Amino acid sequence: MANRGGAAQRPSPQTQGKICQFKLVLLGESAVGKSSLVLRFVKGQFHEYQESTIGAAFLTQTVCLEDTTVKFEIWDTAGQERYHSLAPMYYRGAQAAIIVYDITNMDSFGRAKVWVKELQRQASPNIVIALAGNKADLANSRAVECDEAQAYADENGLLFMETSAKTAKNVNEIFLAIAKKLPKNEQVSGSGSANQGRRLVESDTSAKTAGNCCK
Amino acid sequence: MNPPLKVTSKPKMFTKKSPALRIDEADLKCKSKSGCDFFGNPEWDGYCSHCYRKERERQHNDQKKSPNRGESGSRASADSPLSLSVAKRFNKFEEKKQQQRQQQEKRNKFSKLASSLRKSTSIRETGRLPEPWLEQSPEVERIKQDYASHLASLSPEVRQLINKYIQGLCRTVCADANNMSIDELSEKVQKFYQILAQCMDAHNVNQELKESVLDYCEKFTMTVLHRNLFCPPTTTDEEKDLAIQKRIRQLNWVNAKHLDCCINETSEEVRDLVYTSLTDLLGMDSEKAPQDKLQAVVKCCRNIFLLLQSSVGGPASADEFLPALIFIVLKANPARLKSNINFVTRFCNASRLMTGEGGYYFTNLCCAVSFIENMTAQSLNLPELEFEQYMSGEVVPTSTWDSALMMYEGISLMYEHIAALDDMHKRADSVLEGTELLQNTMKKFVIEMKLNVEDILARTQITFNSEKVPTDIDTENPLSELLPPPIAPQVVMSGPQKMQSTLAYGKESLNLPGITKYAFPSDSELDALGTDSTPVDGVVTLPMSDSQEFLLTPSSTYGFSSLDELATPDELCAAQASLNFVQGLSAVNYEIDISDTCSDSSAGMSPHPPSVPMPEQKDSNSCLPEETGPASLLDTSESPTSKLLPSPIKPVVPGPGGDSGEGSSPTVMNTTAEDTDEVSQQKPLEPTANVSSITSSSEYQGFTAQGWKIQSIPCDTGPSDLKSTKRTKGNATL
């Protein structure tokens, strides 16, 4: 799987089969390494940034599966608590979400749980949610046990992996797992998303409610 | 009820007095049509208080019913609380925004007017509408041109279809813009996009071309229909715009710190990027097609990432980006923000809006706006009270002060530096001036020194020579002592003979000390020249001149010592003689003194006298036969001194002096060399008579003898001449 993942990263111009585009939202407390994870996945970089990499907030990456090409559009979100109430605007219409926490930080795991709940309640019902315990390279100062997180993930039907953006451990794998789990027969850019797009405007109210429920 | 009556009674009184200003009572009555009998008040629009309140209520209700009418009022209220506490940093943008707002107001009013007009016309002549969307603006033309190649590559069939769809949409929207809710319109437009996409899919148009054609359709229709669809009167968009604008204005105190936004405001590069992103965001309003608006947002956001990159030191994540965007929105306070956002969300191709960079950034913009709208003390991590104070403008956040202080610090530092630089500049200037001065003075000094040295050299040469010569003379003095005897016989002799003798003597005496030596100084000085050339003559003339002249001539030359001598004794000869004896013995001393004084004295003056006295003395000696003994001594003693001093002037002085009669010593001095020459040349003839006259008066001779003695001494000091002349005059009178 890792093998294929590595090879599959590079998008081939002549794609056989269909192309599926998915919107993936990154959620999680700030400083848990959301953008590092994405940068590792998309650019293969960690801390050695290239000039071309302006921002890590919006990135796209294509993953090739057997018969389909999955194009991820990765939307980063601001992790600070104060922007929590804005999250619904980001994950609206998203087909996938990765909720990231820091294995050395118990609080971030707590926040992750809140995110999971919120997504299950408010996001589109068939959203694919993955839980990523980042900074696996810092296992010495681990605060969140792997088993505990695994148990929680199983309980809630989430994909779960402990990742490390620094060592690239499980980074490609988690994206591939998501790509596999996503339904490919559905038309992504059709009318469904159009409706959601239109609803963006009235998001204030929903954002408020979201904020309230988290308080 | 009464007070209004009282008030109005006053004008009545006046009206009686001046009928021209008469006002009907009816005019003063309440304007209310319900026949209210109370008087009105201009402050209440001519209503009485009761009716005014009623009217206000009615208007208020109307406003609520049709939100557009209330705009002017609400806008005014939105404008007023502005900017007393506005941070000055973004003044520029504030101005821009105000301009935009004004434009917007105008535009809105116009569009409303236009739309209402259109409505009326469209109602009247439905169906056969002249299709206003066909009156194409240059913008539309440009869009057509931009996409001409794409359209050309479409099959004619598809192109026709697309044109049909576009026309259909435009027609329906134009017709029904005011009858349909904005959501219905939006639905219609979105459906239009989908139909187009399906149509092209059906005709197997390749994906890329399809996208660009979709773009074209969107741009074209939206540009054409912009008037109808952007902020239509059926929506509350405009009110929302004003609300958010007011809100942002209230929040102008929020800075990067409050938002945990890592914008490095002190960096110039970052500041420039902040400004560009601000202008990008403001540019959103000027675009017409939703896609272009989206692009403006994307541009703005990319700039934000750029500016964050330098502050963060790597690709910024959403954690940094969103606060920065909020900050930018707060500072930009773009015109018609809500209208634009709504316009884009409603009429932008949904597939564009939900995916891609544009979609992401636009979502972020929506988030930022939402955050701003719902911003609380909590969301800024501020105490409730502080937040309220800031919002009400009671308190200006300390951070503003901090920045102001920082700026002030910087500015004051700058001024300090400038002052220091100025000071240094001045100092450098003064140093330069000083050096220049110094240079000049040095040059002057050199020149002066040269001149002085030349002068002094010239003089000193003389003096040195004369010193040496006098010493010779001194040595010869005994010889000169030997000489007197020859003089004495001359005295005895008749005038002319004397003359000759004196001449001879003078020549001899002059020659002895070395006239040639005198000649050198004479060359250097004009006066000296004249005098020098004529010394011999002068010698001759002097004795011949009047007694006064004699007195004058010595007077110019007199030194202190001579004066003293003169002042003290009229008894003269004996004492002087004794002195002279002593002097004669100590002649060497004299010479030395003279030489010193000569060197000290100013140019020209001092040298003249001695030459004259020389001959005079001899003359006097010759004139005074009885005193020959002492006289000779005097002569011997003085002769050297007189020789030392530049004698030439003396002859000159007497010459003109004699001509002009009694001339003050300075005038004598001033006389030109030529005159003196002439005079001196003429003199030789005159003396005979004069000499005889002189010789006849023995007393005079005595005086003159004294003078000569004195003269010999005076030679030392040039400058003292004036004093000496005065005194000598006095003496003369005596």
TrEMBL record, chain A:
Its EC number is 3.6.5.2. It catalyses: GTP + H2O = GDP + phosphate + H(+). It is found in: Early endosome. One of its GO terms (cellular component) is early endosome. It comes from the Eukaryota. Pfam families: Ras. It is an enzyme of class 3 (hydrolase). Keywords: Endosome, GTP-binding, Hydrolase, Lipoprotein, Nucleotide-binding, Prenylation, Protein transport, Transport. GO terms for molecular function: G protein activity; GTP binding. One of its GO terms (biological process) is protein transport. Belongs to the small GTPase superfamily. Rab family. NCBIfam families: small_GTP. This is small monomeric GTPase. It comes from Frankliniella fusca.
UniProtKB/TrEMBL annotation, chain B:
Residues 725-734 have a biased composition (Basic residues). Residues 55-65, 94-108 have a biased composition (Basic and acidic residues). The keyword Nucleotidyltransferase does not apply. Residues 55-81, 94-122, 599-697, 711-734 are annotated as: Disordered. Residues 69-81, 113-122, 634-644, 667-697 have a biased composition (Polar residues). Residues 238-381 form the VPS9 domain. This is Rab5 GDP/GTP exchange factor. It comes from Frankliniella fusca.
